[in-house]
Amino acid sequence: MAPAGASEGQLGVPVGGGVCRDYSGGNGSVGCPDKSSPVSVMFLRTVELVVWPEAALEIRRLAVMAPAGYWQQQVDIAPWPARSAHVAVTLPEGDILLMGGVGEPGLLNDVWRWTPRKCTLLEDMQPLEAARFGLECSYKCTSSPIYGQWAQLLDAPWAPRSEPGAVWTASGVILAGGRSSLGYENDVWVWQHSGDFCSVQWQGTWTQLTPQAAWFPRHGHRLVGFVTPGSADVDTVLLVGGFGGEPDSGEVIRGKEPDPADRPNPRNDIWCGNKDLSNWGKWTQIAPTAPFSARAQFAAVIAPTISDFSFVLFGGYDDNARLVVDQWQWTGENTTFRCEVQESTSTEY
User: Annotated region Disordered: where (predicted)?
Assistant: First the structure.
């Protein structure tokens, strides 16, 4: 006989706070007793399946194949214009800064900030309007980490561009290079912010650190940030690869085939910038070339489980005009944390 509160041959298994998926087979099943609960991807790896064949109570282990994590669409149509080749950076407080790219109007330099909060301002007043009036939002905000809200900040003073590099650092958000209507860029900017939500300080300010860095102008490169020993935040940044060369005069136009004569030079060099040494104004080349083919539009992430100063590079678009599927690991020495190149000497007899 089935235990009290359960129907014979069936066991309801709640998953992830009431979200579950039904399973049935043989003499038993697992599922949601309350069919009104939402059905989504199941997180279980294994469950105990309870069955009652004839008069005997048996517990059998059922292995369930389930993906790790799940996707959820937060917004169908975001308030910012559709775009590609933009950058986004996570801020320490959990907000996200989205910048630049190319859309239907052309190259962009608008800046949008997503915050995991829902706040109600004065009636008929938008967050940006409140910020311009310098309103300090002392009222209570409701946490909404899933959906949050977007606020448009003032346009950046740097030239509209696509595929710049961007990373969070101890100084703020560093944005470097990209492709503008005038060609390839090698300027470096920092965005800094403070203050309460919707205040003027919350919008942040941009400061140009250098109009021309030592590295060749480029786009499609990547910035990778590291926390040096004894530091609390990212204070060393590596700039890797990208398409670069001398600036060209070709305007970026969506749908237009580039002239082969204007084909940019892909690169596989590595440059280093450090907050304490030059506040990102000076950059040191620590590797003129790499063993992998020169490329742009790849992915690069830090790999702290490998070492304190290591990153992994995936794929990209290389100098043979092909998409690549390789993977490379880079590991630096302790001196590289401060953008110093350790040279070795040898004597032949």
Answer: 249-268
